Amino acid sequence: MALRVLGIDPGLTRCGVGVIEVSTTRVPTLVSVHTLRTAADLPLERRLLAIARGLEALIDEFRPDAIAIERVFAQNNVRTVMGTAQVSGLALRAAAERDIPVALHTPSEVKAAVTGYGSADKAQVGQMVARLLRLDEVPKPADAADALALAICHAWRRDGVPAAATSAGSASGTRLTPAQRAWRDAEKSVRTPRLGG
Amino acid sequence: MALRVLGIDPGLTRCGVGVIEVSTTRVPTLVSVHTLRTAADLPLERRLLAIARGLEALIDEFRPDAIAIERVFAQNNVRTVMGTAQVSGLALRAAAERDIPVALHTPSEVKAAVTGYGSADKAQVGQMVARLLRLDEVPKPADAADALALAICHAWRRDGVPAAATSAGSASGTRLTPAQRAWRDAEKSVRTPRLGG
């Protein structure tokens, strides 16, 4: 019994997608990792369509029990934030259309979950992702490592407080799929050593 | 021979959609106007899915020759800007998926096009939209009037400089549908009195 989570680090130029499974002992395993790219000289609407179709194809291929997306803030890099927000909207819609529970996590939540502190840098997140997933190398680019970190963060948090608690970002934190319920029940019956923090 | 334009004022709580046609003499006529609404207490992903499906249904019903969307800036109202950007991403994707040319216009461009100056207020835009479309009342809510103003702005600008000239927002300003080409050719053969500015 494993829970499969697909993490998305939204972006127009590079959109990271990481799929992991966690066992009932909270050990995460890599399933697949991808980076969707679009050329900066394509019209915006073509870039969004390409990313949306890429995300939907990966979701349909890996059929995750849950999807986790990095929460975008208006205060982020102004040059890229609108494209990032647009991609996150496409990802949220794809999840809702498939009735897959989806949650948003902030970069701080993700860093805290995988490294133990919320202000870790990209390199530290990548190294911890590689260690947690028992990989020989740090996943590249950083967007791919971040997507895996998001998926791990979500898998570890899903029993706790829903991550998306603000009015602008409520998410289906309380709806569990049958797989998630089974996972939670199974987990209750075993000791659960806590990794990464 | 008329050019049909569908304008979208993106928003999560209220998304305005206005459809107009312009004749070869640049006179705009109302085809249809709608306001898509979602409840603030729905999960974000459900709101986005509902708006996306609503937009797609209207696009498929009215089959516009072009789509015009209000350009969202990161500096706008921080509380609502992310939802607005996400909806604009869904609208752009819907246009690209249907191969319908799409352009982004700033609020200033729209105000200047319909009222003659870029800092007009909402009431002035609404009044001018009503006058241009020969309506007895100002379309309500403001989102609906804004969507119609966007569509009028786009119809009047389509021969000029593409509205979306920044790298983050390139749009298919140079691709004309057969209907648009025919419209442009027809227009060249008649006198074109310039309205609204």
From TrEMBL, chains A, B:
Organism superkingdom: Bacteria
Report quaternary structure and partners.
Answer: Homodimer which binds Holliday junction (HJ) DNA. The HJ becomes 2-fold symmetrical on binding to RuvC with unstacked arms; it has a different conformation from HJ DNA in complex with RuvA. In the full resolvosome a probable DNA-RuvA(4)-RuvB(12)-RuvC(2) complex forms which resolves the HJ.
Q: Per its UniProt record, what Pfam families does this chain match?
A: RuvC
Which co-factors does it depend on? Mg(2+)
Name of the protein this chain belongs to:
Crossover junction endodeoxyribonuclease RuvC
Q: Its family?
A: Belongs to the RuvC family.
Q: What is this enzyme's EC? A: 3.1.21.10
Keyword list (alphabetical) reads: Cytoplasm, DNA damage, DNA recombination, DNA repair, DNA-binding, Endonuclease, Hydrolase, Magnesium, Metal-binding, Nuclease
Quote the biased-composition stretches of kind Low complexity, using this chain's numbering.
Answer: 164-174
Role played: The RuvA-RuvB-RuvC complex processes Holliday junction (HJ) DNA during genetic recombination and DNA repair. Endonuclease that resolves HJ intermediates. Cleaves cruciform DNA by making single-stranded nicks across the HJ at symmetrical positions within the homologous arms, yielding a 5'-phosphate and a 3'-hydroxyl group; requires a central core of homology in the junction. The consensus cleavage sequence is 5'-(A/T)TT(C/G)-3'. Cleavage occurs on the 3'-side of the TT dinucleotide at the point of strand exchange.
